[in-house]
Amino acid sequence: MIVVIFGPPGSGKGTQAALVAKRIGVPHVATGDILRAETAKGTPLGREVEPIMRAGHLVPDDLVVRVIESRLAEPDAAAGALLDGFPRTIPQAVALDEMLERNRRRVEVVVPLNVPEDVLAERVRRRAPEGRPDDTPEAFVKRMHVYRTETAPVLDYYRRKGTCIAEVDGVGDVDTVTERIADALKAGQAS
Ligand code: AMP
Fold first, then answer.
1. Ligand 1 centroid vs 156 CA: distance in angstroms?
2. Which residue has the higher pLDDT, 133 or 80?
3. What are phi and psi of 28, to 5 degrees?
4. Domain extent for 119
5. Of 3, 137, 174, 183, whose CB neighbour count within 10 A is largest?
6. How far apart are CA 23 and CA 178, in angstroms?
7. 27 CA to middle of ligand 1, Å?
8. Is the pTM higher than 0.90?
9. What atom of ligand 1 comes closest to residue 143's alpha carbon?
10. Residue 190 Cα to ligand 1 middle (Å)
11. pLDDT in tens, 56-101
């Protein structure tokens, strides 16, 4: 089962994706985590993407598509994956569909986490001291803009395709939101 979790910066999608992936028994595939690991290791890829990420911009599509393609080819993803932070643009969504179709797979459910913008800004303000370099107020504004202009249209792409979309209210404590997502996935799979 391929599930895409979708949400603006500060929506808690990383935390939720890790918990939900464990619960449904598929790997949590987070492009942001993969790219941050490359940066920490100082690989050529990591060095290339570091300034882009720091500024809150998107890494080029071809690069991130290659990263995801090789990750989904690993044996643990044979039974499925929970994608977090990918696809973030329409070309990425198209590339994902093409790579899945080649293996007779598809995105089964898309889970948008809904959180109002004022709550997002507050969460990111509180998170900033922990040190993600793109959690500064400036980078947050940029990431929010990128989300609205590049990523939100991806949801319309899936809507037009008729992919199951299971909207989830992302306001609440961590466990409550995890339960909501698990319920939404069950309902999504049943439909
Ligand atoms: P995240 O951890 O998902 O918030 O991602 C952190 C940063 O990694 C983003 O702001 C982008 O710079 C980069 N990134 C992660 N996933 C993607 C993607 N699918 N496309 C382009 N850039 C990405």
1. 20
2. 80
3. -90, 110
4. 2-190
5. 3
6. 9
7. 18
8. yes
9. 10
10. 31
11. 899 999 999 999 999 999 999 998 999 999 999 999 999 999 999 9
Q: How many domains does the chain have?
A: 1
Mapping DSSP onto H, E and C, the string for 117-165 reads HHHHHHHHHHHHHHCCCCCCHHHHHHHHHHHHHHHHHHHHHHHHHCCEE
Task: Name the residue of 88, 113, 124, 154 whose CB sits within 8 Å of the most ligand 1 atoms, as the mutation to test its pocket.
Answer: 88
Give the residues surrounding ligand 1 with Cβ less than 6 Å away: 9, 31-32, 35, 52-53, 56-59, 64, 85-86, 88, 92, 134, 143
139 is written with which tokens?
A: 């980078």
C-beta separation of 180 from 115 below 8 A = no
Q: How big, in percent rounded to 5, are the helix, strand and coil portions of the chain?
A: 60, 15, 25
- Give the DSSP H/E element, type plus range, for residue 7: none
Q: How far apart are CA 191 and CA 184, in angstroms?
A: 11
> CATH number for the domain including 92?
3.40.50.300
Nearest-angstrom CA–CA distance, 53 and 39: 10
Mean confidence (pLDDT) of the chain: 92
